[in-house]
Design brief:
This protein is an all-alpha fold. It is built from 14 helices and no strands. α2 crosses α11, α4 (71-92) packs antiparallel against α5 (97-118) and α4 (71-92) packs antiparallel against α10 (180-202). The longest helix has 26 residues, at 9-34. Belongs to the ABC-3 integral membrane protein family.
């Protein structure tokens, strides 16, 4: 039965796409959680919906078949522009970050429905993009997903030290001479690319969950930044491949199944982790010397954990 699934050309494309999404989404999500911008993926996803409808409109005007041939390129452009605008507003504007995200939420949905109506479609045409439709993944979509995933991984992993510094403490990063503004834009752009990569698998409304929940799971078992990212990627791949495999045998939504599995893993790990994780004793480098200040054990452990994160 498993061999039947693996030899199906449709499932081969779907599994490759799910594998790429499972790796890339948690990489970017690790930075978003560190920056306390867990809802940024939602805001970008709503803006990308306007790009989908705009691509549909342009495709219909050019007489392309199918009409949504330019939907993914349109989503990429709109998502990148929206992510950069959110970062600009957050940094320089008078509008607070959460208010900017709220405006993107409402404007993205409204713009998508408005433009799809002008293109001659209906809001039902947007459902496959809102909640994912792995059955519509074509060879062209798969190649675009591969290229975008490689870009996201190259930036997210290759610049991890600089991006961690900016995400953890912008003031310290500025004092260290890092180009904070440019790195913030990089995080925004790779977040936008990740949203469009995951659009076909889990949908624009659920993509943020796949970026954040695996990171939340990883944080239950490790505190070091690098190990958190690696663990989150493993969790992302497992839930994506498992969820997609379930949908091959049962008629359920792949995006919803993947997210439900991820949340289930988080619930189980949250219950089990306190009993499994052992509290490590704090290492004293000079046990022969008296302590100048007697710190509480909890404060000492927090200081050690913060030092580990900075490594």
């Amino acid at each position: 039965m498993i061999m039947l699934m693996l030899t199906d050309p449709f499932m081969q494309r779907a599994l490759i796409a799910a594998l790429l999404v499972g790796v890339t989404a948690p990489v970017v999500g690790t930075y978003l959680v560190q920056r306390r911008l867990s809802l940024l993926g939602d805001g970008i996803g709503h803006v990308a919906l306007t790009g989908v409808a705009l691509g549909w409109l342009v495709g219909a005007g050019m007489g392309l078949t199918p009409n949504d041939a330019l939907a993914i390129p349109g989503a990429v452009v709109a998502a990148v522009i929206g992510a950069v605008l959110i970062e600009v507003v957050r940094r320089r504007g008078r509008t607070s970050g959460d208010l900017a995200l709220a405006i993107m939420f409402y404007g993205g949905i409204a713009g998508g429905v408005f433009l799809i109506g002008i293109a001659g479609g209906s809001s039902g045409n947007l459902m496959q993009y809102l909640f994912g439709s792995i059955s519509t993944v074509t060879d062209g979509d798969l190649w675009l997903t591969v290229v975008l995933s490689l870009v996201v991984l190259a930036v997210g992993v290759g610049l991890r030290h600089a991006l961690f510094s900016v995400s953890h403490d912008e003031e310290f990063a500025t004092a260290s001479g890092l180009p904070v503004w440019a790195l913030n834009i990089v995080v925004a752009v790779v977040s936008a690319l990740t949203v469009t990569v995951a659009m076909r698998v889990v949908g624009l409304l659920l993509v943020s969950a796949l970026m954040i929940v695996p990171v939340a799971v990883a944080q239950q078992v490790t505190h070091a930044f690098g190990r958190t990212m690696l663990t989150a990627c493993v969790v992302g791949v497992v839930v994506c491949v498992s969820g997609l495999s379930i949908t091959y045998w049962y008629n359920v939504s792949p995006g919803a199944t993947i997210v439900v599995l991820a949340i289930g893993v988080y619930a189980v790990v949250s219950l089990v982790a306190p009993f499994v994780t052992r509290r490590r004793p704090v290492h004293d480098p000079h046990p022969d010397l008296p302590d100048d200040v007697d710190l509480p054990a909890a404060a000492t452990e927090r200081a050690v954990a913060a030092a580990k994160e900075c490594r």
